[in-house]
Specification:
With 450 residues, the protein is an alpha/beta fold. It has 2 domains: 174 residues, D-Maltodextrin-Binding Protein, domain 2; 217 residues, Periplasmic binding protein-like II (D-Maltodextrin-Binding Protein, domain 2, 3-Layer(aba) Sandwich). It contains 17 helices and 12 strands. A hairpin with a 5-residue loop joins strand 4 and strand 5. Helix 2 packs antiparallel against helix 13, helix 8 runs antiparallel to helix 9 and helix 16 runs antiparallel to helix 17.
């Protein structure tokens, strides 16, 4: 689906840190009865969701259904699970036909449906006091006719991380500094050691996703430009262009890594789930740049695609660049959210179902099951699972980080977004275009203003 809509954070405000999702504020836990108040009469609701192969995520949604049905005897909710691309295709076709589910998964790759009037405004139907303000703010934007609304409940809130294989690093003689961050010269040396040792530097596949190939570029740009100038570049504000010398330095540096064969030769066909296994099971790559939702796919039984028990997972911060204005900044993202079909026949009842998730108990359950951060307020003292070591690893990696809510898919105009997807997500990391060609195509898209 085409992405449009206003930026998640105005460029002038981009340097203001959002509340870190990794350290959610403690809050009084709501009673289950408050989280699932009865609807007027028994109802049958349909819920379409991504996460077909993310069993831990599915457990949380199933718990929400259970609570809703318990509070509403006779009511039933049927969840249909999809892969993300197939879900977007199904939603697009059904929405255009005036059909579709009552409740559905929503993310930044389908923002045009907000202006199209397909999402119900949840401003008055959700207990927003149980949601972090910055998370609600992300989904508060202009809808049909420019009217502001809150269009989705932000369940998944993540940072973008750089995971690495500790055992492989050790075997290749790579020593991680105490800061968990290399400078650009050191990082190039890390990539060189990986490829010389018969490994790819990055486990990245773009066969079924429009963004994994952009992670390294995005972080190098953030480190070099800082949040405000990067926001200007992505929105096409005109202050910063793709010909800016700082941008050219970043692209030139990344091209050096590409030329070292940093990415898999199969990057264009490798799918997201396959990239996970490429990293932690086949161990063909030293590092994996991915959202902190890595855990939703990798903290599963091995038979379900999870990482082996013996796998030694580590986390790095992305490298610093010379004279960078954005050192210690990290992208904070709102990911999988839940929305209501505005054109459905059961808007009020569907909103009541979504409201079940707006509960600190559910936020705690989400974090315990998935090891992923959330836009729902939680009580960290009540989050328990078998991955306390990971929470410690995450906290150590992010202890000096300033999160910023910048999302290129939500900020770029459609033409710019299409060009960025084609070039920086695919062609550039695959080594198919030069810096000059990439610059020319991206600058044409920016200058067109569409």
């Amino acid at each position: 689906m085409r992405v449009g809509g206003p930026p998640a954070t105005k460029p002038s405000d981009a340097a203001k840190p959002a509340a870190p999702a990794a350290q959610p504020a403690a809050t009084t836990v709501a009673k289950p009865a408050e989280a699932a108040k009865p609807v007027a009469a028994p109802i049958a609701l349909r819920w379409w969701s991504h996460w077909a192969d993310a069993d831990n995520n599915k457990a949380v949604l199933n718990e929400a259904v259970s609570r809703f049905e318990k509070a509403n005897p006779g009511s039933k909710v049927e969840i249909t699970w999809y892969q993300k691309n197939e879900l977007n295709q199904a939603l697009r076709g059904n929405f255009q036909a005036g059909q579709g589910p009552d409740v559905f998964y929503f993310d930044t790759d389908a923002l045009e449906v907000i202006e199209g009037g397909f999402l119900a405004d949840l401003s008055g139907g959700i207990r927003w006091d149980n949601v972090h303000p910055w998370a609600k703010e992300f989904w508060t934007r202009a809808g049909p006719g420019g009217k502001q609304g809150a269009w989705a409940l932000p369940l998944e809130a993540t940072t973008e991380e750089l995971y690495y294989n500790k055992q492989t690093f050790s075997e290749l003689g790579i020593t991680v500094p105490p800061s968990l961050r290399f400078d650009e010269t050191q990082f190039a040396d890390v990539v060189q050691k990986c490829t010389a040792g018969g490994k790819d530097a990055f486990a990245v596949g773009v066969g079924d996703r429009p963004y994994p190939g952009t992670y390294v570029t995005n972080y190098l740009l953030l480190s070099k430009l800082g949040a405000e100038d990067l926001g200007d570049l992505w929105t096409g504000g005109g202050k910063v262009t793709w010909k800016d010398l700082r941008v050219q330095e970043v692209l030139g540096y990344h091209k050096r890594l590409v030329d070292m064969k940093a990415y898999p030769t199969s990057i264009s066909s490798l799918k997201l789930g396959e990239a996970h296994r490429y990293f932690h099971t086949e161990q063909k790559a030293c590092m994996m740049p991915v959202g902190s939702w890595y855990t939703s796919r990798s903290f599963l039984p091995v038979d379900n695609g999870g990482q082996p028990q013996s796998f030694q997972l580590g986390m790095l911060n992305y490298p610093t660049v010379k004279d960078g204005a954005g050192t210690d900044l990290k992208f904070q993202a709102i990911g999988g959210s839940v929305a209501v079909n505005a054109k459905g026949k059961n808007v009020d009842q569907a909103t009541t179902l979504v409201n079940v998730l707006a509960d600190p108990e559910m936020g705690n359950f989400w974090s315990a099951k998935t090891s992923i951060q959330t836009g729902i307020k939680t009580d960290p003292s009540k989050i328990q699972n078998d991955y306390s070591w990971y929470f410690g690893l995450y906290a150590d990696t992010n202890k000096s980080i300033k999160p910023v809510v910048l999302n290129w898919q939500a900020m770029m105009k459609p033409g710019m977004k299409e060009a960025y997807t084609q070039i920086m997500n695919s062609a550039f990391p695959a080594g198919l275009v030069s810096v000059s060609d990439a610059t020319e195509k991206l600058e044409q898209a920016r200058a067109s203003g569409r």
